[in-house]
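#lab-general

N.A. 3:47 PM
ok so I finally got the sequence cleaned up, no stray characters, all 426 residues accounted for. can someone with queue access submit it? mine expired

B.Y. 3:52 PM
send it over

N.A. 3:53 PM
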Amino acid sequence: MRKVFNITLMAMLVAATATAQQEKGIIGSSNWLNNWTEFKPQNTEYNETNQILYGKITTNTTLLKKNTYLLQGPVYVTNNAVLTIEPGTVIKGDYETNGALIITKGAQIIANGNETDPIVFTSNRPQRKPGDWGGLIILGDAPINKFGGTSSIAFELDPSQTIYGGTNPMANSGIMRFLRIEFAGKKIKGYKDYNALSLAGVGNKTVIENVMCSFPQGNAFEILGGDMTVKNMVSLRSSGDDFRFTQGAQVKMDNSLAVRHSYYSGATRSRCLNVTSYDKKEEADFSKGLTNVVATNCTLVNTTDNLAQDLASGLVKESVFIADNASLALKRSVISGFSPAVILDDEIKMDNANLKRIKFEQMYFNNCKGNIFVENSTNNEDLEDYYGNPQFSNLYEHTPNQEMFIDIKAKTPDFRVKIGKITASK
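B.Y. 4:20 PM
back already:
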């Protein structure tokens, strides 16, 4: 009996050790990217559109899987209406009219796909490219830190229909689960690019998980204020930022992935995480919350084929940027293949108060040309000493991506860290 007990105990210890070894970066007992993601969306064929959406949706409406829809121009869900989208439904954004879907404040989207039948927003062009159409915009009445407590999305849209912000952190804008957004981010003359998914003043009763933004011309995810928890988010080859947080956003992000490539980044600096508290300091109300992001078990990776060459030519930039008056706690995460891993705004004073709100703990910094720097400074010895303190359990390594991750060349890649790679690191 004792022998059986010992064998069982040993098996439990092995399983526990394996789990502990795999705790950094995205995690899961299996590859949770399977079935619902698409890493080569330009090769995916969809049915021709047979239904057109345009103007305003003012009553509760359901989009059916049997149809393929076209967003002709900006389509507004208004009047507190609920737009329900069946699993497996495909919605295409029109290139010529800058198709976009806007869920206005008080309305809801119930886009509750499933793993084997995700909901897809994509381009209507035969040869799909980044920036073909607008994107998906969700507007809520959770707090933002701009003066007056409200603001409006630009993008040459109807300003009366794009107001967001309020006083309700528990606002509910609906459900987005197992959903893909492809080739969004249209450039609007006189404005910046659309984002693939804009979440503005969205409250914490909104469910946002398993959402993938692929090949956007602008940012993949832009979170403007609000209070939310998101998980299993995927950004693939964004020209802009993968995740941008501003206007006092209060966000918890878990088990999420940003996959960059040197040749897909925009001409201006684009980051995996761009954490700021305001666009213009004079517009910020400092009596209200500043941006605070807690990100756990995230993988931020540059998949360029020749990292050394791209580093030497200056094509690779930083992975994370933190602006003055913003907070980030990044824990149990992987940053691989950037130059450097992190840059802090040069307005940030390196004192105890600021170091307490900029946390890097149990990190795996891999293949980065430098780790943590202050902007416009080449001397980071103090930061290296601080974040290299054993109490933070940060690891530093130079391992090729192909050896570090389980399988990044598969049709559906597996970006979980190979068991044993972390424990072998210094």
